[in-house]
Write a structure and sequence with these properties.
The complex is a heterodimer of chains A (288) and B (516). Helices cover 66% and strands 2% of the residues of chain A. With 288 residues, chain A is an all-alpha fold. Chain A has a two-stranded antiparallel ribbon with strand order 1-2. The chains are: A mainly alpha (288), B mainly beta (516).
């Protein structure tokens, strides 16, 4: 991608590039998170990716930027919940260190809340990812996005529900060689539910990333931007809130390398002729 | 009597003097020969080897016995072979002459007395007890005089059998030449002239009483008052018989002509359709058994018999067996209860408290007893033996127990659960508790256990003329009741609410924008 051909952020770094990088990190993070154990450490990529996406969302306009801020908020809450649940598990592990025997009641008192909070964390993560991916989904994809939003969470919840039930069956038992295998199986199935969640979302976000690459392409030199501002092949089929992206997209494609030819609306992000005093889309007054 | 001796060392000559009391006969026997005993009775024989480290063989018929009298100078006597039993060391020499007597029993044994420094076989007596390894006991007479200044010792002894070998050993201290005398002919084999002198002699004597004297004053020396000892061994002549079998004949009476009958004697079983069955056996005691034939019982049917040097005849009488009563006596039988007894193909029943009787001959019988459905009999089957007398079998009647099976549901595998039935507790780590109970009404109390409790703690069950199965259902006491965080349902419910709420928020933030 040629930065020279692209509207740049005030800091000089191309926000769409940051956005796409963020999306790519989310995709990679999600697929890595599929792997139990390794994914737990590298899933931090998802969080960093969302932060990148937020930083790059300037290119999408104010509304998207606000939404991405909400996504960040959800991720933060999700992280707090996970850490809270994890703290119980860590406390349990430290209490079991050096122990020669243990009861499942002690383990379940830590694991059950962990599952409880992780389930909510997955919901929040799904919401956050939905917000991130939403701008890059066309209508049909949006429908799938919502399906995935519910489907992935329901898969996790069903899995967690059954595993939690199984785990609770051990509540009154001591840890023995006979039942430790059962506990391990339950733990594995909890991992499998999470892995399925991450994998499906990895696919969704990969689609979003692919779409973003199309939508946020570098500008193509053209005689004028007016013909590309609302391209006929997309304008009729896209919803209103997507127009910002399309505008930006089209603008990027049609604008000349000279940035003085256009004026970006600070409110809706629409590209306007350099001499326009008001935004041709939302009517916001433009700076001279 | 016929003896043959073969000796291996050709350079050494042995002089054997055989003296018979009835008439002096002298035979020369060479050292190293083999003596084979072929006849009986065997007259005692005297062998004087007088050599060092000599050996000879004596071949004996099976189960024969041989007796040795062995003397040695210059050391102790040791007669070694795998089966030689020393009866007596007459004098355990201390640098002086030693003698030993012993016996051995063997099949064709080889005896090799070659450990003495100087030795001579003073006498051999060979005998047998007709195939039985019994020992021939010989008489020993010992006289001594150890008073101060003792110069002689004398005594008398008795010979019970003619042709007995009499071996005489005398010892006197402080005398070089003690003299042996008696009212019979004495053959001195060896006389050692030391400070402590020993004289060996023998004789073959007829039955009777004899006197003997050892005088240590013949040299006129000073006897110094020490011991004078005289020992006399009377070895009776041995009787040897070739082991012989004798007929043992069983003669039957009472069997129809041509009927096969069987006799087992010891380990041998023979059968015949003739009137007698004959075995040939050595002397001894044998167990015999005679089988029934043609439904006739033998008398005697079994026993022991002894073969002792002559044929044995046993008469066996076959006759119809006597019959006896096998009486089945009911106890605690409820009124109007039908019961029956089956023995073989005989089936008898009763509807009351009366006995059921069978007429049976001697033998072992299996029986089975049956009764009405609500009752059982103890015993219900078994066997008894009729052996010359009537037999009573007591039959006890009890209410029939039914299987009350309690099956738990809902517990994990391996959990031990407990119930009480009419106050008696039963536990199981399997799924089922089974008990046998008669008809009746039972209260079952089901105990809770950690994490599980029964849906119903008390169950009443009626057992009425049939087995009964009931189920005890346990419910898991979920930890979800302890904290909402342990509840999968609340977890799902909470998550779904957040999921839906979040969906609305997302929808709104993308679809709304009214304020923008």
């Amino acid at each position: 991608m040629n930065d020279m051909n692209y509207p740049k952020h005030q800091g000089g770094r191309d926000p769409s590039h940051i956005l796409k990088t963020g999306l790519l990190m989310i995709v990679v993070g999600l697929f890595i998170a599929v792997v139990p154990g390794l994914g737990a450490y590298l899933s931090i990529l998802i969080l960093i990716g969302i932060i990148f996406a937020f930083l790059g969302s300037k290119v999408l306009g104010k509304k998207y930027r606000r939404n991405y801020a909400i996504a960040i908020l959800l991720i933060i809450v999700m992280s707090i919940l996970e850490l809270y649940g994890l703290a119980d598990v860590m406390t349990l592990m430290s209490s079991l260190y050096g122990a020669t025997s243990a009861n499942y009641s002690e383990i379940i008192k830590a694991i059950d809340p962990f599952i409880f909070f992780v389930a909510i964390a997955y919901v929040l993560l799904a919401g956050s990812l939905t917000i991130i991916a939403y701008p890059f989904m066309k209508n049909i994809n949006k429908a799938f996005l919502w399906i995935f939003y519910f489907l992935t969470v329901i898969i996790v919840l069903v899995d967690f529900y059954f595993q939690m039930n199984q785990l609770n069956q051990l509540y009154y038992q001591s840890v023995t060689l006979n039942n430790v295998g059962q506990f391990t199986t339950i733990s594995n199935y909890i991992y499998y539910g999470g892995s399925a969640f991450y994998f499906l979302w990895g696919i969704v976000m990969a689609v979003a990333y692919a779409n973003s690459r199309k939508m946020l392409q570098p500008p193509i030199p053209s005689p004028g931007y007016q013909n590309y501002f609302y391209p006929t092949e997309t304008r009729s089929s896209q919803s209103q809130e997507d127009n910002n992206i399309n505008n930006q997209n089209n603008l990027a494609r049609t604008s000349t390398p000279n940035q003085n030819n256009i004026s970006i609306c600070p409110t809706c992000g629409a590209a306007n002729p350099i001499d326009a005093r008001f935004c041709q889309k939302c009517g916001q007054q433009l700076k001279p | 009597m016929k003896l043959r001796l073969h000796f291996g060392l050709a350079t050494i000559i042995l002089v054997l003097a055989i003296l018979l009391a009835s008439g002096a006969t002298t035979n020369l026997i060479a050292i190293g020969s083999t003596v084979t005993i072929t006849n009986s009775p065997i007259t005692p024989q005297i062998l004087n080897y007088g050599i060092l480290n000599q050996s000879s063989k004596i071949n004996m018929p099976a189960n024969g016995s041989i007796y040795f009298y062995t003397g040695a100078t210059g050391g102790g006597v040791s007669v070694t072979n795998e089966n030689f039993n020393v009866v007596n060391y007459a004098i355990n020499g201390n640098g002086a002459t030693s003698v030993a007597t012993g016996y051995s029993s063997n099949d064709l044994g080889e005896y090799n007395p070659n450990n003495a420094a100087y030795y001579s076989i003073a006498g051999i007596s060979v005998g047998s007890t007709s195939g039985v390894n019994s020992k021939i006991i010989f008489n020993e007479f010992a006289f001594s005089n150890s008073s101060y200044g003792a110069s002689f010792v004398n005594g008398s002894f008795e010979v019970n059998s003619s042709n007995s070998l009499v071996v005489i050993i005398g010892a006197a201290s402080s005398d070089n030449n003690p003299t042996l005398s008696g009212n019979f002919s004495i053959k001195v084999l060896d006389q050692l002239s030391y400070v402590d002198s020993i004289i060996q002699a023998y004789s073959i004597l007829s039955a009777g009483k004899y006197s003997i004297n050892l005088d240590s004053t013949s040299t006129g020396g000073n006897p110094n008052g020490c011991a004078v000892i005289l020992e006399v061994y009377v070895i009776p002549p041995a009787q040897f018989y070739i082991p012989q079998k004798y007929s043992v004949t069983f003669n039957e009476f009472g069997l129809p002509t041509g009927t096969s009958w069987t006799v087992t004697l010891g380990n041998t079983t023979l059968n015949s359709t003739a009137n007698n069955i004959t075995f040939n056996e050595y002397n001894g005691t044998y167990k015999y058994f005679i089988s029934s034939a043609s439904k006739l019982s033998p008398s005697p049917g079994s026993g022991y018999l002894t073969v002792s040097g002559s044929p044995v005849q046993v008469s066996v009488y076959f006759k119809p067996p006597n019959t006896y009563i096998a009486n089945f006596i009911p106890l605690n039988i409820p009124s109007n209860t039908i019961w029956w007894v089956i023995i073989g193909n005989q089936n008898k029943s009763s509807s009351g408290t009366g006995n059921i009787a069978f007429e049976l001959s001697n033998g072992t019988y299996n029986y089975s007893i049956g009764t009405m459905a609500r009752y059982i009999t103890i015993p219900s089957k078994g066997n008894f033996v009729i052996s010359g007398s009537n037999v009573n079998v007591t039959v006890n009647f009890e209410l029939r127990p039914y299987n009350l099976k309690i099956i738990e549901r809902g517990l994990p595998t391996g959990y031990t659960w407990t119930i009480s039935i009419n106050g008696s507790q039963y536990s199981s780590s399997s799924q089922t508790i089974s008990i046998l109970v008669p008809d009746g009404k039972y209260l079952i109390h089901v105990y809770s256990l950690t994490g599980y409790k029964p849906y119903s703690s008390n169950i009443t069950v009626l057992v009425d003329n049939s087995n009964k199965t009931i189920y005890v259902d346990y419910q898991f006491i979920s930890p979800a009741n302890i904290s909402i965080y342990y509840s999968p349902l609340i977890m799902v419910f909470t998550s779904l609410i957040i999921l839906i709420a979040l969906a609305f928020v997302i929808q709104r933030i993308y679809r709304g924008g009214k304020g923008e």
